[in-house]
Amino acid sequence: MHDPILQVQDLRAEFTTPDGIVRAVNDVSFSLSPGKTLVLTGESGSGKSTIALCIMGLLPNTGRVTAGEVMLKGRNLLALESDEMRLLRGKEIAIVFQDPSSSLNPVLTVGQQVEEIITNHLDLPRRDARRQAIDVLARIGLPEPNEVVKRYPFQLSGGMAQRVMIAIATALRPEVLILDEPTSALDVTVQAAILDDLQRLQQEQGTSILLITHDLGVVAQMADEVAVMYAGRVAEYGSAQAVFSRPRHPYTWSLLASRPRWDKGREEQGRLMQIRGTPPSLIDLPEECPFVPRCHKATSVCRIEQAPPLEAIEGDGHLVACYNPMYVSDDDEQA
């Protein structure tokens, strides 16, 4: 077993709003192994993207990290000065945001934007930087990269723009790549092609990927390990195989039960499950488990205790934050 390349420990983050303090991330811990893919999944507003911003040191002025550590190869990123963090971004750790149209500069060509990340970190002549930019675009699967470098963002399709963003993020071959909903705005054909390219790049370069998505199909395709987020906390954590085949948290089980199963007929599948209610407000989180109002397995201990800690439920690294977790017999009863 290799030591984790990225480790998040007891991370807390909050935002100041006119309505109060939003506790967006609450005691989140996970680790990313070299060359592997860890997926953060869960409903919108569960804190996934905030974790990415904390790791990259890109929280807005209204946000702040109040506790925890983010260790990249033994260095605590939260303790670095802004200039030190700027040297790491793009070179050792990089991020691809959800919407390329808002991330690309509309008045610069694609080539200029790819070259910028290269020349900021490497002392290269402009001609060599342009050649390297073309190579990066070709590596990510863009056809005719010699022409693409001359185009402006408005001349690109959604899939091409997202590939350009991935090219910028991977230009210097960072060891850790964070992908925040990289395919959510794309059609399924383009999405599948981009995911295939990311897996190919990962195999070629040994990149460690932290992927943020609410698409369970993407989770199943990409993940080595999965952390299921709910109300700013990790509800369940384990290998993709364990989480998908043996979900233990009622929230994870409900998420999986709410998706169509193409391997089953309509009669065998039955009516899809609906998770009742809505996620709680992060401004005034209760001390109890935040999933209690929506949980079909909640007991009295769930309502009088503090939020349950993330603890091992099996010997294979499968962790669950639940006082009354699911078991096989429970699955049979709910089927």
Describe this protein's structure.
The chain is of the alpha/beta class. It folds into 2 domains: 6-223, Rossmann fold; 229-334, no CATH class. Helix content is 35%, strand content 22%. The chain is built from 14 helices and 12 strands. It has helices at 48-56, 82-88, 100-103, 110-121, 126-139, 145-148, 158-170, 188-205, 216-222, 240-245, 250-257, 266-269, 300-304, 328-334, and strands spanning 6-17, 20-32, 37-41, 63-72, 75-76, 93-96, 176-180, 208-212, 225-230, 233-239, 311-312, 319-320. The strands form 2 sheets. An 8-stranded mixed β-sheet has the order 6-7-8-3-9-10-12-11, with helices on both faces. A 4-stranded antiparallel β-sheet has the order 2-1-4-5, covered by helices on one side. A hairpin with a 6-residue loop joins β11 and β12. α4 (110-121) crosses α5 (126-139), α4 runs parallel beside α7 and α5 (126-139) packs across α7. The longest helix has 18 residues, at 188-205. It is globular. The model is unreliable at 330-335 (pLDDT under 50).
